[in-house]
Specification:
81% of the residues lie in helices and 0% in strands. By secondary structure, the chain is mainly alpha-helical.
Amino acid sequence: MKNTPSWLTAFLSVLLAEVIWSTSFVATKIALQGFPPFTLAALRMALATLVLGCFAIFSKDFERPKFPDLLRLSAGGFVGLTVYFCLENYGVKFTSASDAVLLVAVFPVITLLLDSLLFHAPLSGMRLAGSCVAIFGVFLIVRNGSEVSGHQRILGDCFMILAGVMWALYTFATKSVIRKYSMITVNFYQNLVATIMFVPFIFF
């Protein structure tokens, strides 16, 4: 992809990530039949940490972050992985996998609105209009879910929306460190922290 424009490369990368991420909700729904939500999330993080650790051993870009950056990575790991996956797993447990996948589409909108609210990022008319359309779409999903499957499904949808808030906070917490360190460094330390933070949760 040497001659591919940078914006197209970024778009295709995000699109591929969304496809992979979306299929994970179906796998999670199936796995929840045999594992409690917290335990499944803990096992997921532990396995990810093990795989990333193997990559880190052979990576030339892997390095030990400075202490202030390690604190930011830890905050991002706790919010964006530990808390996020607890909420996501409970969301998928109570709602349908299709609802969960559709609700993921509103995560960028949540990030956009929180960025504008907390950090006064500019919000153009086009972005605001797109956000309103996305929010209305989420409202239709949640409303339909409550009519079709009752309060349990709407509870799951609400858990997914809360997970979106955690993902936005994770984005803010990680924003400054991803420019300093390689992705293998960022992902390994955040998954390691998330795995450790899951230990108290699995007892519940």
